[in-house]
Amino acid sequence: MKHPPFSVVRTHHRRAVLRPVLWIAVTGLAVSLLFAFDPDRLFPWACTLAITGLLALLVRLRQRQAHHHTARLLDDSLDAKNRLEASAELGHRTDPLAAAHQEETAAFLVRRPPPSSPGWIVGLTLFVLLLLVQLGSFGIAGFRLLAAPKPASASTTPTTAVPAGPPPATLTWKTPRPEITATQLEEVPLAAEAESATGLTHLVLHVTLNGEDRPAIPLSAAVATGKQTVPLSLYLDELAPQPYDIVAYSLTAERVAPTGSAAPKPAWPAISSPLQFVQIRPLRDDLQLGPKGGGSGSPAEKFLELVKRLKLAQLNLLKDAFALDHDQPPRTQSDWSGLVQSAGAEQTVIAEKTASTLAFGQEQGAPAEGIDLLTQARTEMDAAATALARPDPTTALPPAGRALARLTAVEKLYTKILSQGGKGKPVPKAPDPFAVDQRPKLPPRENTPAGQLEKLAADQAKLAEDLAQGPSEAGQGKGQAAKESQLARDLEKLAAQAALPAETNEAVKSAAASANEAAAQLAAEDSGAAAEPAARAAQQLRAAVAALEAAGRNQAEAALAAAQQSLNQSSGDLQGSSPGESGQTAAAQAAQNTAATRDALRDAAAEQQQKGSAEAAQKLESLAKAIADSKVQADLKKLAESAETDPAVTVKKLNALAQKAADAQGQLGDPKELQAHALEELKRARANLDRAAQAGPEPMRDLYEHVLHQAQLVAATLGTPGSGGGHEGTPAGSILASLTAPPSPEKNIPLKDYAATLVPPIDALITLLTAEALATADRPQVLTTANANEAPPAYRPAVSSYFESLARTKPKPVQP
After folding, report:
1. In the chain, at which end, N or C, are there fewer CB atoms within 10 A of the end residue's CB?
2. Distance CA 307, CA 430 (A)
3. pLDDT tens track for 638-680
4. pTM, entire model
């Protein structure tokens, strides 16, 4: 028989049982190929094969399918009328009945052959191929393992290449400010921000007191890759300082060698944070009346102000020398020695000013102790200037720090003996770097990396526009080549500073390359060929400026949102606290939160001014200034000291500041979206005016305040003339001026009459802003407007003509 029935059933049964096991094996062998050719990944390869074998065994053990089940499936597929199931039941019986049935079933299978199993054949083929590949890969991996070089012995000099340079890493201080004051018993909380590509280790806090080193404080924690915050504390009581002493501190760390590097770690220099200072303030103000009393404008006060100015100058010089000593900028730069020598020249000038102050003090009969301290400071300054002139900032740091300590001691001495009597012309106060609440102004935009990028982008765009107008006149090409070359050099210098975000810096490098290409074409007097790379450089710079602006706005919105949340939380906690100790605690916490919010806004504004959005920086600085000018911290301190003070006024101030933060967020958004939202709000307010007038005075007043606030926000955001300076006499300014305050309840003026006077200016403002929106909209935006009355007249005839043409050309329906 060609197809013995029982053999057919048995073959298909085996394939049905082993098919899942076969495909599990194929899948496992395929996955293990990911590790097969690498001798270092032998363990995952073996684990993959072991898991595959275990899974296949479990599946095989759970198979419970009998021959009868397979026979029934074959009967169904062949329409065999249970022939194969009967053959499976009869098995190997040889009686006449069984033999006759087997012959009849075999004849049926000749007419209807059993189905083939392509899945089984494909799986078996893949299994054999993968098994051969596995054997080949095992041999290759073994050969590589045997051929790998043996590790060098201890006496062998390693020859592995050392990385070209240290991986990038920075350490900066997040808190506190660079110069603060604290009592001699305080714990100063510090927070540093570490950013590295390979991680940092061996963090050490270095501390000096009056220029003298104190034991370094090692930190046990290592820093992972990326941007991480390192919290730590400076315990001043362990240093035993005295009032007016200067404590300087900095944080150093070592880079971690790149992962997988077989070479020993090179001798990379440690990275360091900027140097920061703490001046010890007295536990209480104990000014003493001395025999040489003086008041405002007296010789004693003039002498003290001169000493304060010297201290400020010496403090700044010490910070510069510290930065230069810690490779900021790197010593490999060509101008590093020049910067150190410039610092030495500045130290010489400070020493000369100290000599002049010393002569003035001797003329006025200053105490011998103060004269001696100034003389010592002058000597230390000369030593520091000599070291900086070599140039050697490392040797210059100790005498420069001791000079600062001597000046601080003179300030301490004269503060103790200064009296408050006498008369004289007031002396201008020297800026105190340790003032509790400083308000540093934002640097001019043109002096920041972002401002330089904007200027270079504008200059490149102007030059590209000139080149696009065609061949230049005779002699003009040389001037354009010089301009393009200068722009390329400025772009390369800006990129080398790495002061902008990485993406922007790469765009600046690309623009510099395009500018150099254009400069080369211009030098060859081919202005036509120079137009394309010049336009490309302008486009790259334009995109970089736009990306910087967008990222800055997003960051500023996040900072403003955090400030709004903090102010709202402080207001809510203060309002919800009960009178007494709970209210005082809430006020103290609110004072801390408000100060932290103000400082965070100032830091964010400075960051945006340096490498973000100029408008965002102004918004952040404006809110920080509003917090300082509102004197809300002074109010909160009074509430924290006295339980009888009413917090209502302070809560109102906090709410107003939170609203300013919300308004500033809105003004940083997309102007078109803001315009659409503001128009929608004004229209909704207009629709509710009549209903609110019927409801009573309080809802009416709330609605009016909402309408006026929306109008002013639109004016500030979109540049529409509104309330504020510079918009008087304009149409929108006149409209907003007509939105007068609602009458007081004492005047008994019906609110219906007031609503009648309020509606026209609101309608006029809506009309004006709608017209402004249409003036700035492009054609698709106008065509998709939801209000047909807002469509410009020019579009209406076109739309009408279009539909009329459709009506004329539409084919008539075919009659059935």
Report:
1. C
2. 9
3. 777 776 667 788 888 888 888 888 878 777 766 566 667 667 7
4. 0.40
